[in-house]
Amino acid sequence: MAKSEVFEKEKSKLTHIFKDVEESKRKLVEGLIDDAAFLKAENFDLKLLLQETGMIQIHPSQRHLQKPTEAARQYLKNVNSYAVIIKTLNGVLAKGMIEDDDDLSEFE
């Protein structure tokens, strides 16, 4: 799968999740959805590279000397950023659900 396909798949998935959310909130999170899709696609490529190279470099003669690769560092940064974005998006969804529940409770 190409990076652009991963981007479009993730963007489509997140957009679908937010399809029933109030329009103003949907507009508010459009950028976060794009950022999440971008990070997912970037990590797709990084993950393929890391499968070949591994996440750490081991010194050839002194095996106790190790250091993470730059790709591994970036992958972990991206994962953390992606997690924060998804948590934020989930918070927007949860807030919408709580408000919907509150509206229904008035009629009981």
Describe the structure concisely.
With 108 residues, the chain is mainly α. The chain has helices at 3-17, 23-53, 70-105, and strands spanning 56-58, 66-68.
Describe the protein's architecture and organization.
The protein has helices spanning 3-17, 23-53, 70-105, and strands at residues 56-58, 66-68. The protein has 108 residues and is mostly helical. Strand 1 and strand 2 form a beta hairpin. A two-stranded antiparallel sheet has the order 1-2. The protein contains 3 helices and 2 strands. The mean pLDDT is 89. The chain has one domain. It is 76% helix and 6% strand. Helix 1 (3-17) runs antiparallel to helix 2 (23-53).
Using only C-alpha atoms, the radius of gyration works out to 20 Å
Instruction: Assess the beta-strand content as a share of residues.
Output: 5-15%
Tally of strands: 2
Cα separation of the termini: 50 Å
Structural class of the helices, strands and pairings? Answer: mainly alpha
Number of domains: 1
- What is the 3D shape? elongated
Helix count, per DSSP?
3
Largest sheet: 2 strands, antiparallel
Strand order of the largest sheet: 1-2
- Mean pLDDT figure: 89
Element-level helix/strand string? HHEEH
Please estimate the helix content: over 70%
Note poorly predicted spans.
Answer: none
Question: What descriptors fit this protein?
Answer:
two-stranded antiparallel ribbon; single chain; 3 helices; mainly alpha
